[in-house]
## 1
Amino acid sequence: MDGRLVGWSGRITYDPGPDSEVPRYLHQPKSGHLADAGIVYGMHMPVDGPTVLTEGFKSTIIPRRAGLFTVGGFGTNITLPQVETVLSLCGRRLYIAM
């Protein structure tokens, strides 16, 4: 967990309308490092207190700015390998927020 880029993901921040073909989320294909589903967003940042595992990177950034230690699953759900990664690295209480 050294903060190097392993993939990319994006989310639009506006409502394109019900008939739009614009994807709300856009992710890199799951291959290489992303194929194991154990990638956790934000684990390279300092740990200070109980850890909250959120469902995605946007849900991680906002609480982090408020002072909570949050990390997020890469993608649109939380996987068991992600939970195991966080537990093995943080050694603190883990809360899951969905």
## 2
Amino acid sequence: MEEKIKVILCEVGKDPEVKIVPNEPDWMEEFVGGYLEATSITRDGLILICNDERMRLGLPVNHNFGLGVLGNFIICWAEGVELASVTQDDLKMLNLL
């Protein structure tokens, strides 16, 4: 497992940021504000990680990328059960370059 990965951090009310962050569930739970839920964005493994209880908690809508996710979220890759960094191609696809 990589100790750190490059991800896209999407905070409510802020522009997305590309950051290198600890590849640790505790850090990610702190960023999203609770238990983690992962959802596929693409068929080949690009995922979105958000707060599992976002609806129950009434988190605000995050308008980044037009996804309408509630609360903060993280975009990265899933390779099996491991998380991996986003690539330059991902950043181009999401208009972050």
## 3
Amino acid sequence: MKLKVGDKVKVRRWEDLEHEYPPYCLGGIKVTEAKLFLPEMRRFCGRFVTIDDVICPPGKTFYYIREDYGACEWVSEMFELDSKGKPICYSDVSDFIA
């Protein structure tokens, strides 16, 4: 499933990313061959975010989130995934916030 503008997703925990992917220079985590989870993205770990833009160059999909004002490029592997490896989309985040 490709995410679309307005979708709500939850950013994975830093520790989960660290466990699954190799560390990279400058304190980042190399999530894909082309994308790093940067230290400045860490503040969103475990938080719900809103997809604000989707860019699809050939063979790739990059997401921009509203909460960082489009400052970073995100990939689906950075969000919580279901058992099939697809991002989980939350329709109403208030259902999950105590």
## 4
Amino acid sequence: MGKKTHVAHVLTPAEAIPLIRRVAFRLARRLPPQVQVDDLIGAGWIGYIQACKRFDPTRGSTFEQYAEYRVRGAMLDELRQIDPYGRDTRAWLRKIDA
């Protein structure tokens, strides 16, 4: 048997829009202007869908808290994929600039 889903706890897509936009704009403030907020929002939807599939209310958090965590993680994953440098190189470049 498959995993049970907890549909009653999940935000509707219309309710998720403000959450995804809030996370995207908060993250975009710390990024260079070349990064498009729309790209972050697109990645955020992937995180929202994953949150809907994997949320377990017995773990003690609300769906909104869990979804925000997954949305932000999906956005960071997208940024890592499009970044031409690895994390070590990026840290080295920051060290040089300082």
